[in-house]
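Re: weekly structure request thread

Next one in the queue (83 aa):
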Amino acid sequence: MKVDVYKRPDRGGRFSYLAVPEGRPIPEEATNTDWETAEHNIDLDENNEPVHGLSADDALQQISAKGYAISSVNNKIRIGPNI
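Done, posted below.
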C-alpha cells in the first residue's frame, strides 16, 4: 500500500508520524494538530523496513480500522544532535 507520511514535533526533540493512504486527506479527527509533510508515495509493505517508526503490519491494521496510522509513544523518533 502506498501512503503519505506526515510528522509533528513532540517533547524532547521527538516526532510523531501519521500515515494515510496516498492521495487521501488527513482524517478530520487528526487535523487538530499541525502536521507537516514528511514523505509522499511511500511503499508500506510487510517486507520493507518500518517507515518512521511505523511497522507495516501495525500501520496497515490501524489504517484498516480507522483510515490512518499514527506512531505509538514507544516508537517516537528523535531527530537532533543526540541521534
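The mean pLDDT is 81. The radius of gyration is 12 Å.
Next request, please.
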